[in-house]
Amino acid sequence: MSDMLSIEQREQAWVFTLNRPEKMNALAPELVLALTEGIQAAHQQKIPLMIFKGNGKNFCAGFDFSDLDTASEGDLLQRIIQIEIMLDLLATSPSMTIALCHGRNFGAGVDIIAACKHRIAAAGTSFRFPGIKFGLILGTRRFQNIVGTQNALEILSSTRTFDAQEAQKIAFMQEIREPEQWPSLIEQAEQNNAILSDVTRRNLYKVLYCSAESDQNLAALVRSASAPGLKDRIRAYLKPN
């Protein structure tokens, strides 16, 4: 397991902590792989509850652009696909999944939050989907399913930042709770999760979180990311105004 991710393995819950605070927990390939393998391991052991949070000043800054100059467009496309595979694994999980988020969060980092069934933010948390500026359609349908088409269209097309209060208003967040309250929230989540049997929970999630859209999401992502000039579009987005 990578040093970029720590997993606290409790009896009824695994707590995943993104641990790359010097890079705002940006999704380097090693971190994406560690998340993918950690989620798969939790599924294999039938862990009923997975919780995701970030170390440092935020949950996750999204895609890591630090090697943009040396990576090929094929490399970037492969990395983006791996992120979508990880997101789909999380979104279709038979476990209860909870995101505990804080600070400024962007792109694929917000997509991780959207892939969780229950989402809690600290006051002052903010969210932004900038990827559409360089033509990337990643996690769009999952966000739409939570907040509705009109809210998703307005937020995604404007690429604007929205805060925790607005997120709660449009149901992207269920609660606003400060980090010092999170340990008790985790304990309460473990108790609540025990109300249903594992079989009942899995059947319920299979109905509520249909995996039929998985291939459509991946296809939309590949079409958007594989259009010629991906690196140039990213550079234009990153260029200071």
From TrEMBL:
<dbReference type="InterPro" id="IPR051683">
    <property type="entry name" value="Enoyl-CoA_Hydratase/Isomerase"/>
</dbReference>
<dbReference type="GO" id="GO:0008300">
    <property type="term" value="P:isoprenoid catabolic process"/>
</dbReference>
<dbReference type="GO" id="GO:0016853">
    <property type="term" value="F:isomerase activity"/>
</dbReference>
<dbReference type="InterPro" id="IPR029045">
    <property type="entry name" value="ClpP/crotonase-like_dom_sf"/>
</dbReference>
<comment type="similarity">
    <text>Belongs to the enoyl-CoA hydratase/isomerase family.</text>
</comment>
<dbReference type="Pfam" id="PF00378">
    <property type="entry name" value="ECH_1"/>
</dbReference>
<keyword id="KW-0413">Isomerase</keyword>
<dbReference type="InterPro" id="IPR001753">
    <property type="entry name" value="Enoyl-CoA_hydra/iso"/>
</dbReference>
<protein>
    <submittedName>
        <fullName>Putative enoyl-CoA hydratase/isomerase</fullName>
    </submittedName>
</protein>
